[in-house]
Amino acid sequence: MTNTIKTLFASFGIATLLIALEYFLKSSFLSIFLKDNLVGLLLTLLAINTATSTVISSKLEDISERTGANFEDVIKEVRGSLIEQIVLIGLSVVLLIVLHSKLLDLGTYYIDIIINIFLTTILVYAIDILRDTGVAIFNIVIELNRKS
């Protein structure tokens, strides 16, 4: 849980820097990209991580059968990361609905900036989940090569 909070704050910090850079350079690339593509990108990352998690789980089961090792905590973490991604997709949909709402018409540029920071935080956090999954795959491959 502590690691998740650290990652969340780091993602928020990176997102804030990116949106600040966008603001000071008078660019709108990232904001427009996120508004148009974030949900699709998150769904793609979820699909990649789901497939990768299946491979991880399969290999861990093989190792467990051969060695008797217990990987319940690892499987729990994999499941947790998939749930995190689903929550990120839900949050991004809600934030995008609020951002595009005519009824709420937040009308202030700073609210847009805040929402864009949160959307960018979601993207950075999702990329970190993908990185974490990749590290797990490499660790399994290294461990399997050692045993061979």
Beginning-to-end CA distance, first to last residue: 35 Å
Unreliable stretches: none
Strand content: under 5%
Number of domains: 1
Number of helices: 4
Percent range of helical residues: over 70%
Rg (CA only): 19 Å
Number of strands: 0
- What structural category characterises the helix and strand content? mainly alpha
Give, in order, the helices and strands.
Answer: HHHH
Shape: elongated
Summarize this entry quickly:
This protein is 88% helix and 0% strand.
Topology, element by element:
Elements: H1 2-24, H2 29-67, H3 72-100, H4 109-147
Helix pairs in contact: 1-4, 2-3, 2-4, 3-4
Provide structural commentary.
- This protein has 148 residues and is an all-alpha fold.
- It has one domain (2-147).
- Helices cover 88% and strands 0% of the residues.
- It contains four helices and no strands.
- The protein has helices at residues 2-24, 29-67, 72-100, 109-147.
- The two termini are 35 Å apart.
- The model has no long low-confidence stretch (mean pLDDT 88).
